[in-house]
Design a protein that fits this description.
globular, three-stranded antiparallel β-sheet, 360 residues, 14 helices, 13 strands, alpha+beta
Length: 360
C-alpha cells in the first residue's frame, strides 16, 4: 500500500491534476514539501504512514463525506441565493461586478471582527504573477480586489498566519482552496502546531465562483503578443476606460491596455490549466458564502449563496453596517445557476480520472 507523498504523486501529480492550491506544503508535518513549477515536490524522506498531504488535497474526493458532515453541522435554517453590491459608489466603480467580497472583507476588518483577510494580489515572482496576500488595512483589501485568472497557492500563507500571530482571519479562495481548507480544519490533531493554529484562526471562508483558471505564463505570453517586453512590466491590473473594462500593463514608459474580452479570449484559447479542464465544482459548495459575477453585461451586482450560519451572520452584519446592499436573486438567474450546476462548465476537455477517490 502506498503512503504519504506516493499517494499524492500517483493519484494527482502523475495525471497533472494539481490545482496548486497550496494546502499540502504547510500541512506536511515533517516539512519536506516545497513548490516547483506550480506543483509540490518532495525534498527529503517522507514520514512513514503519513498521508496528510494527500488527505487535504482537493483532488482526493475520498474524504467528501467528512466535508459534507462539516457542512451539515453549520448549515443555516434557510440557504439563500442573493445578489448584492457595494454601497460605496467609488469602490463599486472599480469592480467588475458588485464587489460583495470586498464589502464583506472591509466590514469584518474595520469592525474588528477579524485581524486580517487572506486574498490574492498581483506581484509574485513577476508583476503579472498572482500571489497570496494577508491584508490588514482597507487599502490592502481594495488593492487586491478583482480577478487574477491564474493558479495561486493561497493556502501557502498558513505558516505566516501562525507565525505572525493572527487570531481571527477571513479567507477568500477558489473552490479548490476552500475544499482543502475544510479538509485541514477537520484534520484536527493530525496537523502539526503551526498549520493547526492557522486553520483554527480562520473564522470565515468566502469562495469565489470559478469559470476556469490558467497558467501564469499565459498572461506573460499575452503581454509579449502585444509587443511589450514582459521583463519591463512593473504592474498589471484591470481598469475601466470609457465604461469598458481593460487589462492594463504598466512599464517605465507608460501604460497600455487591451479589451478585457480579448485578454480572456486569449487565455481560453489555449492557456487553461490542466487541473481545471472538466472541473465541475464551480460554486465553492463548502464555503460560508460563495460569490461570483452574474452573466448579464453591465449589471453591477454580484450573485452569492449563503451556505452556513457563519455566512448568514456575516451578510447580515455587513448589510446592517452599510457596506453592502442585498436583494433576493431574480428567478431567471436562479434558473441559470441551477442549469449550470447540472453540467460541466464547458471549458476544455474532460480530464483523466483515477480510480482512487478522485471522482467528483
Amino acid at each position: 500500500m502506498r503512503t504519504g507523498f506516493a499517494d499524492l504523486h500517483h493519484t494527482v501529480l502523475k495525471g497533472d491534476l494539481c490545482s496548486y492550491c497550496g494546502g499540502c506544503v504547510p500541512a506536511c508535518p515533517v516539512d519536506v514539501l516545497s513548490y516547483a513549477r506550480e506543483r509540490p515536490v518532495i525534498d527529503g524522506p517522507c514520514a512513514s504512514g503519513c498521508r496528510i498531504c494527500f488527505d487535504v488535497c482537493p483532488e482526493n474526493q475520498a474524504n467528501s463525506t467528512v466535508l459534507d458532515d462539516y457542512m451539515a453541522d453549520h448549515r443555516p435554517a434557510v440557504e439563500r441565493q442573493l445578489v448584492g453590491r457595494l454601497t460605496d459608489p467609488d469602490l463599486l466603480a472599480r469592480t467588475g461586478s458588485g464587489g460583495v467580497t470586498t464589502g464583506l472583507a472591509l466590514y469584518l476588518l474595520e469592525s474588528g471582527r477579524v485581524d486580517a483577510v487572506v486574498l490574492t494580489g498581483f506581484g509574485g515572482a513577476n508583476a503579472w504573477t498572482p500571489r497570496p496576500v494577508i491584508a490588514t488595512t482597507r487599502d490592502e483589501v481594495v488593492a487586491a480586489s478583482g480577478p487574477k485568472y491564474a493558479l495561486t497557492p493561497t493556502l501557502s500563507v498558513l505558516d505566516r498566519i501562525a507565525d505572525e500571530g493572527y487570531e481571527r482571519v477571513m479567507f477568500v479562495g477558489l473552490p479548490c482552496h476552500i475544499e482543502s481548507l475544510r479538509q485541514l480544519q477537520t484534520a484536527g490533531d493530525r496537523l502539526a502546531d503551526r498549520p493547526r493554529r492557522a486553520v483554527r484562526a480562520i473564522t470565515h471562508a468566502v469562495g469565489l465562483w470559478c469559470g476556469n483558471n490558467f497558467r501564469a505564463e499565459g498572461t506573460e505570453r499575452f503581454i509579449s503578443a502585444a509587443g511589450i517586453d514582459p521583463a519591463e512590466v512593473t504592474e498589471v491590473g484591470y481598469t475601466r476606460r470609457d465604461g469598458r473594462l481593460e487589462f492594463s500593463v504598466t512599464t517605465p514608459d507608460g501604460s497600455a491596455g487591451a479589451p478585457f474580452g480579448q485578454y480572456l479570449g486569449y487565455l481560453l484559447a489555449g492557456q487553461t490549466a490542466p487541473s481545471c479542464q472538466g472541473c465541475r465544482r464551480w460554486h465553492a459548495a463548502y464555503a460560508d458564502i460563495s460569490v461570483g459575477g452574474l452573466d448579464t453585461p453591465g449589471l453591477k451586482w454580484s450573485g452569492f449563496m449563503v451556505q452556513t450560519r457563519e455566512g448568514q451572520d456575516l451578510v447580515s452584519g455587513a448589510e446592517a453596517a452599510g457596506y453592502i446592499t442585498v436583494r433576493d436573486m431574480p428567478l431567471d438567474e436562479r434558473a441559470r445557476l441551477g442549469r449550470k450546476n447540472t453540467r460541466s462548465r464547458g471549458f476544455g476537455t474532460p480530464k483523466p480520472r483515477n480510480s482512487e477517490g478522485n471522482q467528483r
